[in-house]
Amino acid sequence: MVTFVNKLTVHGDHDAFLAVRARLTAYMSAQPGYVSHQNLRALGAGNVHLEIAVWDSADAHRAAVSSDGFRAIVADLKPLVTAEPAMYETEDTAAPLEAAGVR
């Protein structure tokens, strides 16, 4: 499993952003390999959002974002936001803690 995190800073119409994001979320949640999704909004900075999506694999996510359907929706999103996307993997935190004598 991998986690996709995308920081979105909205500089266009916020309602238009929410509408496009809803379309994009619906599209992505129907793609093979999709597991779950969460949207967060920064307290005190209402124009900053985090999109967090869990996928079976980076390849499944890559296939979804390579599709024509995805590109069509993202074309509507690009004028509204600045995006900072990244893919993450789970990090083993137990081994370093045990090595340090914590636990």
TrEMBL record:
Coiled coil: none annotated. One of its GO terms (molecular function) is monooxygenase activity. This is Antibiotic biosynthesis monooxygenase family protein. Residues 1-75 form the ABM domain. It comes from the Bacteria. Keywords: Monooxygenase, Oxidoreductase. Gene3D superfamilies: 3.30.70.100. It comes from Streptomyces kurssanovii.
